[in-house]
């Protein structure tokens, strides 16, 4: 476990599970024109993208992402570059992958991927966003704001919260990230970054209580 580790109570786990479930869009997957794998610390995005490519869901795939303070050591040549290499190792042909190596946030992931696709002569009507499990809703809301004329579907690795925590190795950090992404779902529409998403009362209550309990390292100034 990481240095950030602390004991998580059963009630805190229950509240975190509510938020985890809310973050996922539960879209029924079907063939689309193109997929975009959103860069992050989580190589599972590239793994899931490769699985869905091999399943025949899309003919072309963009990996997008440069570096951030949390990924520079893990992916020193940039998130998209490492994701691309991982997907090729899992059987995705290199010619099916487009690279966007500069984006530093989700808005740039969408905007710069659109530019890369346009430069390749691809004008999709349907787009599948592949992200971390707890980032589906925020990426959906961002894409709907910035790319309103396409249909957006979302996917991620089909993991339960417990399994995801084991893959990351730090319970406190994962709960911090769940809380931080939900804050962005709530706040970003006010800043013009995303469309509004309804937050059920039980999910909002879980979010507010976890903030009171100190799961705050991924919060932004609101």
UniProtKB/TrEMBL annotation:
Coiled coil: none annotated. CDD domains: YdcF-like. It holds the Pfam family DUF218. It comes from the Bacteria. InterPro entries: Cell_Envelope_Assoc (IPR051599), DUF218 (IPR003848), Rossmann-like_a/b/a_fold (IPR014729). Gene3D superfamilies: HUPs. Residues 45-146 form the DUF218 domain. PANTHER family: DUF218 DOMAIN-CONTAINING PROTEIN, INNER MEMBRANE PROTEIN, PROBABLE PERMEASE. This is YdcF family protein.
